[in-house]
Design brief:
The complex is a heterodimer of chains A (379) and B (272).
Chain A lengths: L22 E10 L2 E11 L4 E5 L6 H9 L6 E6 L2 E2 L10 E4 L11 H12 L3 H14 L15 H13 L5 E5 L7 H18 L2 E6 L2 H7 L2 E6 L2 E6 L1 H6 L4 H6 L4 E11 L2 E5 L5 E4 L10 E6 L5 E3 L9 E11 L3 E8 L4 E7 L14 E5 L5 E4 L2
Parallel strand pairs in A: 3-8, 3-9, 6-7, 7-8
Antiparallel strand pairs in A: 1-2, 1-4, 4-5, 9-10, 11-12, 11-14, 12-13, 14-20, 15-19, 16-17, 16-19, 17-18
Helix pairs in contact in A: 2-3, 2-4
Chain B lengths: L6 H25 L15 H8 L1 H34 L6 H13 L2 H15 L5 H25 L4 H8 L4 H29 L3 H6 L7 H10 L4 H41 L1
The chains are: A alpha+beta (379), B mainly alpha (272).
Amino acid sequence: MKSLGSIRREFSPWTDPDAKPYIVVDKVTKRFGDFTAVNNLSLGIYEREFFALLGASGCGKSTLLRMLAGFDEPTSGRILLDGQDLRGIPPYKRPVNMMFQSYALFPHMTVEQNIAFGLKQEGMPKPEIEARVADMLKLVKLTQFAKRKPHQLSGGQRQRVALARSVAKRPKVLLLDEPLGALDKKLREETQFELMDLQQNLGLTFVIVTHDQEEAMTMADRIAILDKGEVMQVATPPEIYEAPRSRYVASFVGNINMFEGKVGEKRGDGLAIALPGGPTILSETGGEVPVGSDVAFAIRPEKIAVSSRQPAGGANVLEGEVYDLAYLGDMTVYHVKLAGGQVVKASALNASRISEDPLSWNDKAWISFRPDAGVVLTR
Amino acid sequence: MSGSWTRFNITSIVLGFAFLYLPIVLLVVFSFNESKLVTVWGGFSTKWYGSLFNNKGLMDAAWVTIRVGVISATFATILGTMGALALTRYTRFRGRVLFSGMVFAPLVMPEVITGLSLLLLFVAVGLDRGFMTVTLAHITFTMCFVAVVVQSRLMTFDRSIEEAAMDLGATPVRTFFQVTLPVIAPAIVSGWMLAFTLSLDDLVIASFTSGPGATTLPMKIYSQVRLGVTPEINAACTLLIGIVALGVIAASLVNKRREVQRVRDEQAAQRG
């Protein structure tokens, strides 16, 4: 079986034509004065999905989240939750809860009181509240800190209180606004897996906003990449990485080399791309693109091989010299300057301790890649 | 900056403190004077404090002042807090600049003008001058001080905790009483204390707006002083100074301790 990347779990309702999305964002536009934060955006999020909204700051991802929570109303368009139109429903009546970037803990309440706050608003009987709070404290491993105030906690502990408080009401959907943004790197990585476990154990739908592509790739079932208030692509992390549909998505996630050229001729399902200055690249995909159009052949650095000798077999071999290199321990990144002046990044895994084919600055080098290793982009 | 005690430093500190506190020290010292003549030292005595409590005029005035202070500070705090909320929360209504300017104008308005205009108003609407008019006048002029104090707190208020409360199911009213109010409470309390203190020592506006039976302590002291300063007045003033000083010291000690505790807690939390 062939697949793009590894599969985290058997969960893919979006491939099922009968499955109905749980949250439907339907042609939503949000304007603040002259500024359009979200522009005619449509999305579907499925029940129990871990969905990430990924984009640079100002792309509209937080605005979309705030509209889901009810803090902002769309200028036009609809948001449906489980078939119900959310327009006009205030935040305190929506079955969604949000975890805030700043955590927004109530400074005058203890950890316990913070977690119990939402349950009290519901009018839940006191013994049940106590039991639920105790459960939540156990879940986030803060039982011994129950009587502390937020300022007596470390950043990671505060983050977990905020999480416990937002899931205490068992919302249908949990919205997370940059939930790990304030944590240091090591803690962030640990917490990512904790969040994933929690989401699966509680069976909740998570919608997370982040600008950190690694975070989105690690945690999400699907990622929506936003730019200027519009969706660029919605896909699983391997699809986003291996089959981006536009130059923006390709360069937003990870490193990539773009060979800009014109379609020379069709070759079955694939095509040949003429680069400026002579060389031709063969691609196994992109056969639907008409001859003569401007395209980019996008290929990730780890899919390009670098060698000091000219490899046998003629296709997709380009000559250049090592312009720069960075040794990162687990791998080495070569910057190879081609004859046409373009600098190509190629990374080689340092699988053995001793290199058979050491390359150094200004060495002559050949780069090569398979015709199926990249994608043809028209947008 | 060497931080050493140069002669210049010492001189300026001594002069500065003398300038600020010498009159007050004199007043306090002479309140313990045995002699009836204010400026002639006749030995130590606390008899003026005793006679002060038997001086019905002064005690009545003190009681009026306290009632006016408490009532006006309370209303001024409510109104000032509402004004501050309106100014920080609804930032886009028409005439906001004008409104905020008008709220803060009384801060710099000469008291004589405030007092006179209030007097004209009370006469125009036919309100008899007395306890109520002084109280109303004090509400008017202390309200803007409360608004300033509360507004500066609201400027740094993290709105997301209100959103979090609503997100967790609290209606806007419950959010206000369960989250907003408790968090800004310290600013409201200091606003109240400021309003009370201002009301306590106001002479000018009270003189314009007060009537028979509603003489405040500053008015009483002032009128008695015109007949000659008695050691009794010195004693009354010393008590006032003592009360204010105690209040200020207590408030700052509480703040200081809370701050120290906070820093200690945060350091402990960071250590894990």
